[in-house]
Fold this protein.
Amino acid sequence: MSNPAKAQNLRQHSTDAEQALWKCLRNRQLAGYKFRRQVPVGKYIVDFVCFERKIAIEVDGGHHQEQIQSDTARTTWLESQGFQVLRFWNHEVLTQIEAVQTVVLTAFQKASPTSKAPSPQPSPVKGEGECGYKGCQ
């Protein structure tokens, strides 16, 4: 099965968690950004992607515990293409959808647009700004 045909099949047979997250992402409902679902990106099919901010979202079920190596390779490749990859477990999406949305919104704040437009915010003054630690807000 070709990637476009496989992607279409995946869209038609989404998991409950994927359907729940899609309800939050579709029609630019989250911060006005366009998401697409089950989209071929290179040799992979990404569950959800925002090309404008190069954010890929993967919703993982229990079977992903057995495919850690392939998921790691997939994430590494996507990151090499400039994507930020966010992974959530099915149960997180189904039971903590607000927290999942918060993580995605935070990723938007950190991601830069794919266009080459200059940043609208000034550079930090020496000694101010980001501390370099990923946990900083």
Notes: Residues 3-110 form a domain with the Endonuclease; Chain A fold (CATH 3.40.960.10).
